[in-house]
Amino acid sequence: MEAIEKIKEQVVAAVPGAQIEIIPSTPAAQQPALLVDREHCFAVAKFLKEDPRFQMDCCSCVTGVDYLASGFIEVVYHLYSMALKQGPVILKVRAPRELGQCSVPSLTPLWRGGEFQEREAYDLYGVKFEGHPDLRRILMWDEFTDHPMRKDYTPPLDYEWEPTAHDETLARARAQEGIVPPSALVEADKAKKK
Amino acid sequence: MALDEGLKSELQKHGVFIVPFEELYNWSRKSSIWPLQFGLACCAIEMIAAAAARYDLARFGAEVFRATPRQADLMIVAGTVTKKMAPNVVRLWNQMPEPKYCIAMGACAISGGPFKDGYNVLKGIDRYVPVDVHIPGCPPRPEALIHAIMTLQRKIAGQHLETGAKPRWYDCAATTEFPMPAYGAHDLEPPANREIWQPDRNYKGVTIDEARELLKG
């Protein structure tokens, strides 16, 4: 596999206007990634799939990452070439965390194998994949409205009265029983962060 | 009616067996418990091992795993019950004819196990289905499942039709239909069937009302 800088040069030459940034990996032993802007993501992916130098015919993994502090959600695609026996090229796309705006172009039209994985990212992170043929929840039930892998997700208040409950669990259990007000939960969360 | 043990023993020597009808009835039920053939996670592998040649559940008359709830006596909830699966487990339970029994196999089926704090896992099937025997373990070994079947057999043998507290299924007024939870926006609704699920809410020997009073003071 060529160096990531070379790949970037070729992609920029093939897709004019694409904003591409190289994200170094930590630890450095792992693969660096290409951060692509949302507008040119599909064109870049199409180039990597169809160009004879890359022939990225396998999209092995699609996943979401929630960067709560930075305010964006990242979608990561791992691309491999079965034909040339090389890879991976890692594509990253970022979208704002707000549910209405959190959308990236779907790459399922290029790699059908991405269909279920994009549905999973939609289900758990709330990323809307524009152009996905069948974007429904895949793990949680259809009536579910939350996206539980987001870092600001709070599970429903449902604690059993545990005989050895302590700290946060005890606070939550007490709040559920109406013994202490829900504000105690906020305090417990604060204490946890410290 | 108590039968004279000496007379009973004497008659048996001549090939005459006299038992109360209740005992015969319970003996026939406990000797042929047909489990429902379904598994939810890794505990099901242990359940399969218990039914296969090495552990041979057939020795206890419980080898006929039925692929339909209409023919099953026993539901072995073997594995993690996700919230998405829970209504279907209750539906299977409702489709089984009385008298029916339930074994919660493994930490997950009992309480949610290692996934108890997860957003998608039911914190124990006893929230919706009355459980007769709980087996701890992660997963329990086949011997533990066999022990649970034997415990259930003892329970069946001890059920009285004429005197004392009747079993649930022998009470015509008792419900045989357990409400299925609905898929809600954040959780199952309701999160538990309060009529059958009343956990011990004591904390260090203090009742919940006493705890409230203590915390006020």
Write up what this structure looks like.
The complex is a heterodimer of chains A (194) and B (217). With 194 residues, chain A is of the alpha/beta class. Chain A contains five helices and seven strands; from the N terminus they run H-E-E-H-E-E-E-E-H-E-H-H. In chain A, the strands form two sheets. In chain A, strands 1-2-5-4-3 form a five-stranded mixed β-sheet, covered by helices on one side. Chain A has a two-stranded parallel sheet with strand order 6-7. In chain A, a hairpin with a 4-residue loop joins strand 3 (58-67) and strand 4 (72-81). The termini of chain A are far apart. Chain B is mainly α and 217 residues long. Helices cover 32% and strands 8% of the residues of chain B. In chain B, the strands form two sheets. A three-stranded parallel β-sheet of chain B has the order 1-2-3. Chain B is globular. Chain B starts with a helix and ends with a helix. Chains A and B meet through loops of A and helix 7 of B.
What are the salient characteristics of this protein?
heterodimer, A: 194 residues, alpha/beta, 5-stranded mixed beta sheet, two-stranded parallel ribbon, 5 helices, 23% strand, elongated, B: 217 residues, mainly alpha, 3-stranded parallel beta sheet, two-stranded antiparallel sheet, 32% helix, 8% strand
Q: Give Rg of chain A in angstroms.
A: 21 Å
What's the pLDDT, averaged over the residues of chain B?
87
Give the biggest sheet of chain B.
3 strands, parallel
Q: C-alpha Rg of chain B, in Å?
A: 20 Å
Strand order of the largest sheet of chain B: 1-2-3
Distance between the termini of chain A: 44 Å
Estimated share of beta-strand residues of chain B: 5-15%
Roughly what is the average pLDDT of chain A, rounded to an integer? 86
Low-confidence stretches of chain B: none
Q: Write down the secondary-structure element order of chain B.
A: HHHEHEHEHEEH
Q: What structural class do you assign from the helix and strand content of chain B?
A: mainly alpha
Proportion in helices of chain B? 25-40%
> Largest sheet of chain A, described in full?
5 strands, mixed
Beta-strand content bin of chain A: 15-25%
